[in-house]
């Protein structure tokens, strides 16, 4: 895949985000409407996309790649957790009360809302297939390690949310259909496919709308937010890229795993802060700044990966 294609696909996503930002700023897309659209995206559209990704003929190679992506996803999250503990656990950050939030923003990327549309745009059905594995692993870590980092305790309800999350269920059921070579009836398959196609535009519009309330001018002067961006957008993805190349991972799998791990700060950083009664000031600043910077950092990382992959 050429550099121009990568940059073009990312620009499309940011234009959709700009549309959402403009609609929210002009009050045409208010909070109650946004909340309902987020519910539609998370509980209907994304599960359809995840399930539909598994509606392909079974092959031993695809199953091997599926398991490989699962292993890589677990390893990446564990590596990020260790690095965040080593680099973002200083006394100064603890005194400011943001050490745990910075660790969360460094570890967890916006792989669902922003990452899945990106990899689907880049590599098509393989992006959804591999991406669904990464997102399922990410969800498990968010509701276990992520919640534990913020609250100091692990609640049974959090584990239930992981197991019964529609996207996790869609991945499990889709995987069973894939392994057993079960295909949906034509009409139902087409209907699920049409809903799945809504994901990219709807997700990006909602990400843009979420940024509208933030006073963009103030975030440029937050040293803590910039440190978070350095970790999430540059340092951690660079470590992943080096590791994937060392393991001789290439092609679609390289682009998908790198793209999802290099996405900006996760929107879950704000949601988890709200759930645990913590201030959302830092997560919102970090999320907004990281998303803006990703306009440059994401094409850079993906271009490096694509150039190296084609050269070797």
UniProtKB/TrEMBL annotation:
The UniProt entry's sequence similarity note says: Belongs to the auxin efflux carrier (TC 2.A.69) family.
Its topology with respect to the membrane? Multi-pass membrane protein
Alphabetical list of InterPro entries matching this protein = Mem_transp_PIN-like (IPR004776), Na+/solute_symporter_sf (IPR038770)
Q: Which UniProt keywords apply?
A: Cell membrane, Membrane, Transmembrane, Transmembrane helix, Transport
Species source reads Shewanella electrica
What is the protein name for this chain? AEC family transporter
Name its cellular compartments: Cell membrane
Membrane-spanning ranges: 6-25, 37-56, 62-83, 104-123, 129-148, 169-188, 194-212, 224-247, 253-275, 287-305
């Amino acid at each position: 895949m050429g550099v121009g294609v990568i940059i073009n696909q990312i620009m499309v996503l940011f234009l959709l985000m700009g549309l959402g930002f403009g609609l929210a700023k002009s009050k045409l897309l208010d909070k109650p409407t946004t909340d309902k659209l987020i519910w539609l995206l998370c509980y209907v559209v994304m599960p359809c996309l995840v399930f539909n990704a598994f509606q392909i003929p079974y092959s031993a190679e695809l199953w091997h790649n599926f398991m490989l992506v699962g292993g890589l996803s677990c390893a990446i999250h564990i590596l990020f957790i260790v690095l965040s503990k080593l680099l973002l656990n200083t006394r100064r950050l603890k005194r400011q009360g943001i050490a745990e939030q910075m660790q969360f923003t460094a570890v967890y990327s916006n792989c669902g809302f922003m990452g899945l549309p990106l990899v689907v745009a880049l590599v098509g059905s393989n992006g959804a297939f591999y991406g669904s594995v990464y997102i399922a692993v990410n969800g498990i870590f968010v509701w276990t390690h992520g919640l534990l980092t913020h609250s100091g305790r692990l609640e049974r309800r959090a584990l239930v949310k992981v197991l019964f999350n529609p996207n996790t269920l869609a991945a499990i059921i889709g995987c069973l259909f894939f392994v057993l070579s079960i295909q949906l009836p034509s009409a139902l398959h087409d209907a699920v496919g049409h809903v799945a196609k809504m994901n990219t535009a709807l997700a990006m519009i909602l990400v843009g709308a979420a940024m509208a309330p933030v006073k963009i001018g103030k975030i440029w002067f937050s040293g803590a937010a910039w440190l978070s961006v350095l970790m999430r957008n540059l340092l951690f993805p660079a470590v992943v890229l080096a590791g994937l190349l060392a393991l001789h991972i290439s092609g679609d799998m390289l682009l998908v795993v790198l793209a999802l791990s290099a996405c900006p700060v996760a929107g879950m950083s704000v949601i988890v802060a709200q759930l645990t009664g913590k201030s959302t000031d830092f997560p919102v600043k970090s999320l907004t700044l990281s998303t803006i910077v990703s306009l440059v950092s994401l094409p850079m990382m993906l271009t490096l990966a694509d150039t190296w992959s084609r050269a070797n």
